[in-house]
Specification:
- This protein is an alpha+beta fold and 94 residues long.
- It has one domain: Arc Repressor Mutant, subunit A (Orthogonal Bundle), CATH 1.10.10.2910.
- The protein contains 2 helices and 4 strands.
- The protein has helices spanning 44-63, 71-88; strands at residues 6-9, 12-20, 27-30, 35-39.
- A hairpin with a 2-residue loop joins strand 1 and strand 2 (12-20).
- Helix 1 (44-63) crosses helix 2.
- It starts with 5 loop residues before the first strand and ends in a 6-residue tail after the last helix.
- 26% of the residues are buried.
């Protein structure tokens, strides 16, 4: 499957970078630049869950929910969301 350079998250265009060199975490969503960077170290199911996790941050950004919750709660929400999607839909094809 081709990795899209941009993902539309409810009208918010999020740039995707899949070759994050020197990234000290699996992935990162930057609210300022609206860009997701995924570490090149991520492979297989970890890669899928990382992409879904970071898209969860973009979704909360787009909806404005991130403004009403703590960073800790946001992490819990996007982790549950990404695990649910990956497990329910067997998303290992990204």
């Amino acid at each position: 499957m081709k990795k899209p350079p941009v993902v539309d998250v409810m009208g918010l265009l999020v740039r995707m970078s899949y070759n994050g060199e020197n990234v000290d975490e699996a992935g990162h969503y930057d609210r300022t630049t609206k860009c997701i960077v995924i570490s090149e170290e991520e492979k297989g199911q970890r890669y899928v869950r990382t992409v879904l996790h970071e898209l969860g941050h973009a979704l909360l950004d787009r909806s404005g929910v991130h403004q009403a919750i703590s960073e800790e709660l946001e992490e819990v929400i996007v982790e549950v969301y990404s695990n649910f999607l990956a497990e329910t839909f067997k998303m290992d094809f990204l």
